[in-house]
């Protein structure tokens, strides 16, 4: 009686697995060049692990870099800084790490995988509210109202650590409805109108393109996040990795970053 | 769950057939079979080897761990009940009633299997969220808001897990001998009575198998839950969410949590399988 069922049971996971394999295969055309550490100087691919909040700016800088160095390509892995730090310490083949907090960078430097990180930008929190501000939030203290649904980042990720710091500095106790795993997920909850307010970075408010409104608050000054960047000591791309960091630190890099709402260190 | 397996179905799957064919085992089946087993089991061995055994019990005793485990077990069980209530009738409709567009409906049912669960969560928000198509009305009329509640976790899990139940039960229904139902009908039983007294006992093993799959999928649900129900200790942070968050800073804690989840589900699934799921 299970013949029909078991045919399904075999066919479905197999089909899913095949689709998955096909998807992976096609997404990494430049991979072999970066995977060979022996080719150091002659590498043509820079692999950059960067905090999710750098998605827009670093993608733009990546294009600039490719244009300035014909024949090279920049690959990005954007995500929560804490996750990226874990991936690097587990041996992910990265050349450059740009983190959203010194604490996550420290995970990597403590493992002797990078040294002397440079702070390249700073990011400040803002209160993000859905268009129209339905709960009429205009100060940090409004978030303590139990009728106001608040989303925060989990304390383990940089935006959450900053939120805790800002609320502590203000002496406020906020009970959020959810603790999201990264800043983009937090912002999504605001964009969809599922929460009345959230604490996210100024840059995320700007990147949302008007779908959420940002409210600056004075306590944010006490919880500014420094963003460190470093080349990794085992960088397969060698010099090319350093050149990418130089671009980020250059005036051209600064311009792109400050346009997106980042502050100079 | 146990009450759905009355006696007539016993032994149905124990029909002769197992072990009837003898002779040398074909390598073409044994080698890939064993490779497949190793592929599925080795990651589990990896977890066991890397587990911080010395601090294991100390970590397990933390209240957040028990809280997350309890929440996971409760929500997965309630989600399975929801799936049974809605999924068995749906499977019956698909297997026994021919209506236009049935093939399309059957394809639509597999959507949650294919959809990345995170997208499923966003879809749930768009429909049942505070500003969603239905959620807006729920909020305005009854003051019910589902996101960020334990009920939201149940919904997210049921959404992702129900196809497993429907596919199993529909398969069981199609494999049963319909002459039993026809005989009952000729003796004057209504369709409802036939379903209750004949069909249901016949497909009970299929229902249990589907419910077990459904429960296991609900227990491991992550993407739709974190997207639709959020992540807050005590109300929506289930074990998979706790594991993911622990991975950010404390991989060892994440391994411990995963082991707990694995151990609990293995015990329950092995127990159920021996007792109720008699098919090979």
TrEMBL record, chain A:
<comment type="similarity">
    <text>Belongs to the bacterial solute-binding protein ModA family.</text>
</comment>
<feature type="signal peptide">
    <location>
        <begin position="1"/>
        <end position="22"/>
    </location>
</feature>
<keyword id="KW-0732">Signal</keyword>
<dbReference type="InterPro" id="IPR005950">
    <property type="entry name" value="ModA"/>
</dbReference>
<protein>
    <submittedName>
        <fullName>Molybdate ABC transporter substrate-binding protein</fullName>
    </submittedName>
</protein>
<dbReference type="InterPro" id="IPR050682">
    <property type="entry name" value="ModA/WtpA"/>
</dbReference>
<dbReference type="Pfam" id="PF13531">
    <property type="entry name" value="SBP_bac_11"/>
</dbReference>
<keyword id="KW-0479">Metal-binding</keyword>
From TrEMBL, chain B:
<keyword id="KW-0812">Transmembrane</keyword>
<dbReference type="InterPro" id="IPR000515">
    <property type="entry name" value="MetI-like"/>
</dbReference>
<dbReference type="Pfam" id="PF00528">
    <property type="entry name" value="BPD_transp_1"/>
</dbReference>
<feature type="transmembrane region" description="Helical">
    <location>
        <begin position="253"/>
        <end position="272"/>
    </location>
</feature>
<dbReference type="InterPro" id="IPR011867">
    <property type="entry name" value="ModB_ABC"/>
</dbReference>
<feature type="transmembrane region" description="Helical">
    <location>
        <begin position="198"/>
        <end position="218"/>
    </location>
</feature>
<keyword id="KW-0813">Transport</keyword>
<dbReference type="InterPro" id="IPR035906">
    <property type="entry name" value="MetI-like_sf"/>
</dbReference>
<keyword id="KW-1003">Cell membrane</keyword>
<comment type="function">
    <text>Part of the binding-protein-dependent transport system for molybdenum; probably responsible for the translocation of the substrate across the membrane.</text>
</comment>
<feature type="transmembrane region" description="Helical">
    <location>
        <begin position="107"/>
        <end position="128"/>
    </location>
</feature>
<comment type="similarity">
    <text>Belongs to the binding-protein-dependent transport system permease family. CysTW subfamily.</text>
</comment>
<protein>
    <recommendedName>
        <fullName>Molybdenum transport system permease</fullName>
    </recommendedName>
</protein>
<dbReference type="InterPro" id="IPR006469">
    <property type="entry name" value="NifC_ABC_porter"/>
</dbReference>
<keyword id="KW-0500">Molybdenum</keyword>
<keyword id="KW-0472">Membrane</keyword>
<keyword id="KW-1133">Transmembrane helix</keyword>
<feature type="transmembrane region" description="Helical">
    <location>
        <begin position="25"/>
        <end position="49"/>
    </location>
</feature>
<feature type="domain" description="ABC transmembrane type-1">
    <location>
        <begin position="69"/>
        <end position="270"/>
    </location>
</feature>
<feature type="transmembrane region" description="Helical">
    <location>
        <begin position="69"/>
        <end position="95"/>
    </location>
</feature>
<feature type="transmembrane region" description="Helical">
    <location>
        <begin position="148"/>
        <end position="169"/>
    </location>
</feature>
């Amino acid at each position: 009686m299970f013949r029909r069922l078991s045919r399904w049971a075999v066919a479905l996971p197999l089909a899913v697995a095949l689709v998955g394999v096909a998807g992976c295969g096609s997404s990494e055309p430049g991979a072999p060049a970066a995977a060979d550490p022996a080719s150091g100087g002659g590498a043509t691919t820079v692999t950059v692990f960067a905090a999710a909040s750098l998605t827009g700016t670093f993608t733009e800088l990546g294009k600039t870099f490719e244009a300035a160095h014909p024949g090279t390509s920049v690959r990005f892995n954007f995500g929560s800084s804490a996750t990226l730090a874990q991936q690097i310490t587990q041996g992910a083949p990265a050349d450059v790490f740009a983190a959203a907090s010194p604490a996550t960078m420290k995970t990597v430097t403590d493992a002797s995988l990078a040294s002397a990180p440079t702070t390249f930008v700073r990011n400040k929190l803002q209160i993000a509210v859905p268009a129209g501000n339905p709960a009429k939030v205009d100060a940090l203290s409004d978030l303590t109202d139990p009728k106001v649904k608040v989303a925060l980042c989990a304390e383990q990720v940089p935006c959450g650590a900053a939120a805790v710091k800002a609320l502590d500095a203000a002496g406020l106790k906020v009970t959020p409805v959810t603790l999201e795993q990264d800043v983009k997920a937090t912002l999504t909850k605001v964009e969809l109108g599922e929460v009345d307010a959230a604490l996210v970075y100024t840059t995320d408010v700007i990147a949302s393109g008007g779908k959420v409104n940002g409210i600056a608050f004075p306590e944010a000054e006490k919880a500014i996040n420094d963003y460190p960047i470093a080349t990794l000591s085992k960088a397969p791309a060698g010099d090319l990795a350093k050149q990418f960091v130089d671009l980020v630190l250059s005036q051209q890099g600064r311009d792109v970053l400050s346009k997106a709402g980042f502050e100079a260190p | 769950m146990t009450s759905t397996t009355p006696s007539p179905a016993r032994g149905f799957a124990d029909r002769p057939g197992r072990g009837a064919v003898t002779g040398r085992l074909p390598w073409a089946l044994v080698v890939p079979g064993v490779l497949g087993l190793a592929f599925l089991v080795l990651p589990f061995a990896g977890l066991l080897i890397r587990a911080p055994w010395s601090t294991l019990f100390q970590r397990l005793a933390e209240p957040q761990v028990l809280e997350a485990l309890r929440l996971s077990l409760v929500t997965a069980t309630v989600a399975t009940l929801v799936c049974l209530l809605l999924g068995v009738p749906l499977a019956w409709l698909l297997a026994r009633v021919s209506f236009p567009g049935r093939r399309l409906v059957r394809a639509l049912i597999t959507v949650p299997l294919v959809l990345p669960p995170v997208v499923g969560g966003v879809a749930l928000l768009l429909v049942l969220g505070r500003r969603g198509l239905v959620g807006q009305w729920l909020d305005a009329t009854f003051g019910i808001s589902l996101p960020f509640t334990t009920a939201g976790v149940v919904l997210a899990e049921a959404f992702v897990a129900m196809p497993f139940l429907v596919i199993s039960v529909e398969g069981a229904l199609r494999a049963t001998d319909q002459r039993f139902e026809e005989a009952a009908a000729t003796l004057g039983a209504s369709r409802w009575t036939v379903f209750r007294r004949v069909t249901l006992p016949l497909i009970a093993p299929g229902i249990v198998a589907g419910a077990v799959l459904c429960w296991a999928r609900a227990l491991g649900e992550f993407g739709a839950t974190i997207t639709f129900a959020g992540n807050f200790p005590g109300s929506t942070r289930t074990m998979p969410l706790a594991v993911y968050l622990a991975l950010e800073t404390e991989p060892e804690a994440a391994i411990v949590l995963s082991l707990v989840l694995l151990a609990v589900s293995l015990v329950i699934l092995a127990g159920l399988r021996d007792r109720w799921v008699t098919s090979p």
